[in-house]
Design brief:
Blueprint: H1 3-32, H2 35-38, E1 78-80, E2 88-89, E3 94-100, E4 103-113, E5 120-126, E6 133-140, E7 149-156, E8 159-160, E9 164-167, E10 171-177, E11 183-192, E12 200-210
Antiparallel strand pairs: 1-12, 2-5, 3-4, 4-12, 5-11, 6-10, 6-12, 7-8, 7-9, 7-11
Amino acid sequence: MSNTEHWVHKLAAVFTIVAGGIALLIFLGVKGCSPEEQTSPPSVADSPPGDSSGVTSSPRVNTPSSTPSRPPTQQREMKYLVDLDPLSSSYGVDRGSADLRGRSFPQSVSLRVDKNSIPANDAEYNVADRWKFFDATIGVRDDSPAGGRITFQVFLDGNPQPSHELGIGESRELHIKLAGVLRLKIKVTFTVGEYYDNYSYGVWGDARLSD
């Protein structure tokens, strides 16, 4: 064997030994890894439903509102004059629907007057210190003759309140305090006009008492 061949065989043997050692190290390294280290971390799909972060959240509890409920609104009591009998009246009262300026007032008290035989008419009611307010829409009834005018006035325990003179086609809203009042009187007076025989009606439209 020549010198060259001898060194070639020697290098081949060394290469074989080195390659075997590397293979042994790789084998030992793979075998030494634990199964836990090879397991991949849990994915989002493994998380509890409804939580994309993978963190389990406590279920929500609906707490009832602590806001106190409002007490029901107290309804005001009311009484129409048509439902009361007057203590006195000069010439009687007409009860029922009446029209003022084309508007119908179904709960009305009407007092009729004329220039000759009934220049004034009134009706007095017992309110017995029970009610706080008197409300009405006053005016000359639509079917009254044109040209006449009537004065409307309210008396509280005999004390006159401001008067209102109105003609056909005119109306006014009344809102009068009744606190401490025992007697309520309504009055209409013929003021001016050219007719003698036809009655004219002073209307207290939907006249009512309330507390």
